[in-house]
Amino acid sequence: MVRTGFRMILDAQPDITVVGEAADGVEAVDLVHATSPDVCLFDIRMPRRDGLEATRMLAGPDVANPARIVIVTTFDMDEYVYGALRSGATGFLLKDAGPILLIEAVRAAAAGDSLVSPSVTVRLLRELAVPRRSPRAVPLTERELDVVERVARGRTNNEIAAELFVSLSTVKSHMESVHAKLGARNRVEVAAWAWENRIVG
């Protein structure tokens, strides 16, 4: 029933097409390998192989071409949130977030961005951070730090461009540089770095 509902919501969008659905985690991994979708939606608890293991297999640190995976679940538990994002997921959404956030999460993942349910975002970023290094150890420019701070506060690229009075392409260029310098694969990792290094507080 949930999969049918998601399919109806997503297929109704002019820029989104559902290319397949799986009944369990084993089938889901096989289907991703077979179809190479732009974005995957996984639950935490799936039969035969859970969402965290499936995410690690498809988007973990050792995966050459990681899939873009959004976890959509009813379980708002810290260990699940952290586990999903540490496993390589690009987003985390609660099933009660509503259709608009579901659509936005898929579009964000397709664009290489991340979307985390607002109810867990600040808590997640504060707790996800494990102090490792000083900001001085990473050669970010002052403007890159401005961008990173806003990413950590949940701003989109368009919002960052408006706040800093620069073009969208300039923000994207800064983000590419930040990803390269930090070794971060997505916005969540950039935001976590900002929290752990007290770029935001």
Question: What is the secondary structure topology, with strand pairs?
Answer:
Blueprint: H1 2-11, H2 25-35, E1 40-42, H3 51-59, E2 69-73, H4 78-86, E3 91-94, H5 99-110, E4 115-116, H6 118-128, H7 142-152, H8 157-164, H9 168-182, H10 187-196
Parallel strand pairs: 1-2, 2-3, 3-4
Helix pairs in contact: 2-3, 7-9, 7-10, 8-9
Description:
- Helices cover 53% and strands 7% of the residues.
- The chain is an alpha/beta fold and 201 residues long.
- The chain has a 4-stranded parallel β-sheet with strand order 1-2-3-4.
- β1, α3 and β2 form a beta-alpha-beta unit.
- α2 runs parallel beside α3 and α7 crosses α9.
- About 3% of the residues have low confidence.
Write a concise synopsis of the structure shown.
With 201 residues, the chain is α/β, with parallel strands linked by helices. The chain has 10 helices and 4 strands, in the order ααβαβαβαβααααα.
Pattern of helices and strands: HHEHEHEHEHHHHH
Low-pLDDT runs = 130-136
Measured as a percent range, the helix fraction is: 40-55%
**Straight-line distance between termini:** 41 Å
Major pleated sheet: 4 strands, parallel
Number of helices: 10
Q: What spatial order of strands do you see in the largest sheet?
A: 1-2-3-4
